[in-house]
Amino acid sequence: MKIALDVMGTDYGPKELVLGAVMAVKEYKCDVVLVGDEPTIKELLKSYGAENEPRLTVRHASEVIGMHEHPGIAVKTKKDASIVVATDLLRNKECDALVSSGSTGAAVAAALFHLGRIRGVGRPSIATPIPSLTGTTVLLDSGAKVDAKPEHMLQNAIMGSIYAELMLNIKNPRVGLLNIGEEEIKGNEQTLATYPLLKEEKLINFIGNVEGRDINKGNVDVVVCDGFVGNVVLKAAEGLATAILTMVKEAILNGGFLAKIGGLLIKPALRGLKKRLDPEAYGGALLLGVRAPFFICHGSSKAKAIKNAIGAAVDGVERNICSRIAEDIARQTKADKVVGTLR
Amino acid sequence: MKIALDVMGTDYGPKELVLGAVMAVKEYKCDVVLVGDEPTIKELLKSYGAENEPRLTVRHASEVIGMHEHPGIAVKTKKDASIVVATDLLRNKECDALVSSGSTGAAVAAALFHLGRIRGVGRPSIATPIPSLTGTTVLLDSGAKVDAKPEHMLQNAIMGSIYAELMLNIKNPRVGLLNIGEEEIKGNEQTLATYPLLKEEKLINFIGNVEGRDINKGNVDVVVCDGFVGNVVLKAAEGLATAILTMVKEAILNGGFLAKIGGLLIKPALRGLKKRLDPEAYGGALLLGVRAPFFICHGSSKAKAIKNAIGAAVDGVERNICSRIAEDIARQTKADKVVGTLR
């Protein structure tokens, strides 16, 4: 199995990504094709003592898409951008899955234009795993499609349910619609129109509306929302978690001698917690609805996160997540057509 | 000055609200009119030794609107519901401001139908103060109007800016539009159409788009968003904060003897932090755009939160927040008409 890794366009430069790949081939049964500036990559491989590792190969790409470029335009004009070259490796079946930590917009655009959607999928959706009090919840869409139509939201629910089953090992995952109240009559135009579609869909275990406070509670496995809402909520959660931990640290540091001693004593216990909350542990978000497993990591991902994303990519390929999505979406769209004929 | 307090329809029953009122008249220069079931309120006043406090009076209301009733229908059919009776006290100028911790939807509906909007305001908006790393940020709309139009979002920005100035004492508050990226080209239909309106508006200090992670950072004072997004984000933040604190507690309790000792040692230091993060400290959210200060507290508010909300209501009246909104909205709508004529 071969994983394409786009090593360019990230916050810390290619060094963390190359190191992540070096770590990954030691842990998982896969080869990694490093896509980006060849001389830089080769030098980094040498510095990690991995220049002769046969499972790591390099594919040169002369261009990079920056975080602030217009994704659609950049993908169309920069034919030799690393994310475009890496995506083409999937299209040509040279690789089985992809990991990137560059611009999310550029990754989605490259996946759409150079890899293509699974037949029947209206719009791809970004599934982000997040820690809850009882395990892991997946939230989608976390940013691929804003102003999603109810039929996109329905497909998000179906794809998210498959993600939870195959990637998080949850049987019959509970699917909730993110809303401003539990009652069916609550919501905006979009969620009010989505609710009946989810309620009628037999491919999912729909438990009704859920609220913001349920995301981390552990009472729902798949949280379905629009790409705008998902993106804002995830970034707000990131900011709040940082703010709370900063405030805790400040309070302990300003709390006098005993508080400082106390801080030292609880440190080992909190290390486990840090691991539980760590977004690096999950590796990355998965772009669902395109023809191959396509992982999008945070721009500030360190080597460990990249390694874990490569591990998740291996899982995605082994568990045939894309074929399963293709099957279920075919069933859903076929059922929709039958209902359409009967009407 | 007289504050109307709706003591019914909350999670813990009227006892916390009546106690909050007893505490408030000791601390602030105001009278409180307690609206709800008279026998219950009188008994509670007696139990707090406040049955002869001349600054506390009771107004009987025979009905209550529950959390799960349809707000619009309930407000129209239950003419003697406590929130309706309390709102009528504002309309008849018997009271100057109102505090409620019953159903938010019912409060908004009562304010709309029984008190009315400030001239020129398209839709009222709920302003919620939230703690940031450097002080307090106000987020609005946190749930009054979903599917807000760009012109509603503009008025949210103007009203939120006045709130930050008068209630949070921030000079020239920085106004940001909650979005999925900082660039002007980022967003959904709603934010893309709102951005130019905010950019051109001279009544506010617009600093551009902000992201979810900026809400608690302290780099923006007024965060403008749609009522759906605001509601989901606030509830997600509430859930995440609870989840993190639960996880910290669990980690310390499961961390062995030393961790437990450490936990005890940091406790006093964390007490200050709890105060800083405590939503009770802020009392409540303010419904902006209606004809009198109208505070909506969390359904689970304890006496202290109610007392603080009454304090905030006193501030709102003293600082003439509604007149100031009326002035600025008149200026904005007038300017809009002039521009309209010139086009």
Automatic annotation (TrEMBL), chains A, B:
GO terms for biological process: fatty acid biosynthetic process; phospholipid biosynthetic process. Its EC number is 2.3.1.274. GO terms for molecular function: phosphate:acyl-[acyl carrier protein] acyltransferase activity. GO terms for cellular component: cytoplasm. It is found in: Cytoplasm. It comes from the Bacteria. Pathway: Lipid metabolism; phospholipid metabolism. Keywords: Acyltransferase, Cytoplasm, Lipid biosynthesis, Lipid metabolism, Phospholipid biosynthesis, Phospholipid metabolism, Transferase. It catalyses: a fatty acyl-[ACP] + phosphate = an acyl phosphate + holo-[ACP]. Gene3D superfamilies: Isopropylmalate Dehydrogenase (3.40.718.10). Pfam families: FA_synthesis. Homodimer. Probably interacts with PlsY. HAMAP family: PlsX (MF_00019). Belongs to the PlsX family. Catalyzes the reversible formation of acyl-phosphate (acyl-PO(4)) from acyl-[acyl-carrier-protein] (acyl-ACP). This enzyme utilizes acyl-ACP as fatty acyl donor, but not acyl-CoA. This is Phosphate acyltransferase. It comes from Succiniclasticum ruminis.
